[in-house]
């Protein structure tokens, strides 16, 4: 009988500009969990990026694992969960989505649900409220997804992303619900058509690997960035400085406040070294694209 599991979930960036609530990209920053069966529930956080104070009952991973077990009418056994995270909270790097994916996987493993990857992605997207971050954390690579009116999730997954990314992570939080409050409740028809065309061009450029053109459309979002820009420290300065240094494009990562730049692989290291002294209040790092998605090993 298996009593211990190791789970690794990649973080993610969402939108890449106009791909609002639809496009996700898995990043090489990880939430890792060591899960062991025991008599009582216990969580141990071993990372500065995880809360110091929490209760088991309010822990997102526990709540999602419990909800998943209830959904499939099985009893969830108690576990000790040791967690480490490279994902700062409320920074637009998919920390909540990775926790949701992890919670589903705990229930999947300890209850032997044998959920398919499609099942896990569908459930994570439903709990998260949209498929961008969740799909990327489950599948890895680039994901483009939409939920149809009947609830069916349709998705395209491309794990062959031949580009590099740099993230600018500020030492401030911006919760998604706060970032959504500044968005308009509706858009004028002509405005929405233009915004949709830009999203279409971003998607097509990414899929044909025309990253220079993708970068252009990363910077032509009309759905959310014009309204969130003032919430992001140094947003306009970072975009212009990054472009001057060779970035194809720069956009808000998810709801922010992290900003992400798209570059060719041969320029990424020099780019990061050039940006660090210019924005000393940011943690600036190169991040690779995770191509595996969630990974589980057993002891």
UniProtKB/TrEMBL annotation:
GO molecular function: homoserine kinase activity
Pathway entry: Amino-acid biosynthesis; L-threonine biosynthesis; L-threonine from L-aspartate: step 4/5
Signal peptide residue numbers: none
Localization (cell): Cytoplasm
SUPFAM superfamilies the record matches: GHMP Kinase, C-terminal domain (SSF55060), Ribosomal protein S5 domain 2-like (SSF54211)
Catalytic activity field: L-homoserine + ATP = O-phospho-L-homoserine + ADP + H(+)
Keyword flag Hydrolase: no
Residue ranges annotated for the GHMP kinase N-terminal domain, each copy included: 60-141
InterPro entries: GHMP_kinase_C_dom, GHMP_kinase_C_sf, GHMP_kinase_N_dom, GHMP_knse_ATP-bd_CS, Homoserine_kinase, Ribosomal_Su5_D2-typ_SF, Ribsml_uS5_D2-typ_fold_subgr
Top-level EC class as recorded in UniProt: transferase
EC number: 2.7.1.39
Residue span(s) of domain GHMP kinase C-terminal: 206-276
One Pfam family recorded for the sequence: GHMP_kinases_N
Highest taxon of the lineage: Bacteria
Keywords tagged on the record: Amino-acid biosynthesis, ATP-binding, Cytoplasm, Kinase, Nucleotide-binding, Threonine biosynthesis, Transferase
Residues binding ATP: 88-98
HAMAP family: Homoser_kinase (MF_00384)
Function recorded in the entry: Catalyzes the ATP-dependent phosphorylation of L-homoserine to L-homoserine phosphate.
Protein family membership: Belongs to the GHMP kinase family. Homoserine kinase subfamily.
Protein name: Homoserine kinase
Gene: thrB
